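Sat 14:20. Reprocessing the chain from the morning session after the first attempt stalled halfway. Input below, unchanged.
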Amino acid sequence: MEKAAIGRALIEWYSLAARDLPWRDPAVTPWAVLVSEFMLQQTQVERVLPRWTAWIERWPAPSALAAEEPGEAVRAWDRLGYPRRALWLHRAAVEIAERHGDRVPADVDALLALTGVGPYTARAVAAFAFGERHPVVDTNTRRVLARAVHGRAAAGMPRPGDLAEMEALLPDDPAEAARFNAAAMELGAVVCTARAPRCAECPIARWCEWRGAGYPDNAPEKRPRQARFEGSDRQVRGRIMALLRRSGEPVPVARALEAAADGGVRDPEQAGRAYDSLVADGLVVEFEGRARLP
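Finished this time. Tokens:
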């Protein structure tokens, strides 16, 4: 593949076509970028936008969040899903305030040492907040690589070589590399989509191996589908969390269990099992027969 030509085409397209998302504003802080990466994990952009805006207005720096109880982070997380991310983000804020002088670190290893920050998030923050040259590979990027580089209809499971492949395509200039990372992710999100790719609009279509091969139906085996939300323990957990977010005061455990069962449960043990799992995850604190956010 023609690395330089692909880089120019993709970055030029991104400059013209990228969605206007607030965490992409050059003026936002590294903290705002970190918050966006936490929120965007397995969550649609449209759902994140109002929560991110409210979060940054309320807690514009890590120390502002660190000064609050963890439960306030969980409450503000609202219905974004996977609320443990809110707890992790609160802990990361405390760590940044205490260890790094209230400044998000730029070093990938220092980022990895923060609670809730994995390899993807660390590289994404280093690239997008600080302009460092690191390959950033998410689900959308992997699909672009699978089609454009390997001629496969889909990416399949993550592979150890994904990062090396992306790094090989990155421009040498760190700032351009960061834009290329963002552009590849954007391309996968809005053009090179999983179900209905719009190849006629793709800025790198002329170099795409999948297109050149005639769009073969050669997707690798799909990963197992996630269990349905309806009737699941996740849904029952969500009912308890919704009650506690609404309640300014601790509620009786019996009331929390009633909320869990409100709407039906799959088996007699489900409400208790969901409640116990929230306690084990640190999302619910129980004392004297009452439950509250941490």
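Residues 233-292 form a domain with the Arc Repressor Mutant, subunit A fold (CATH 1.10.10).
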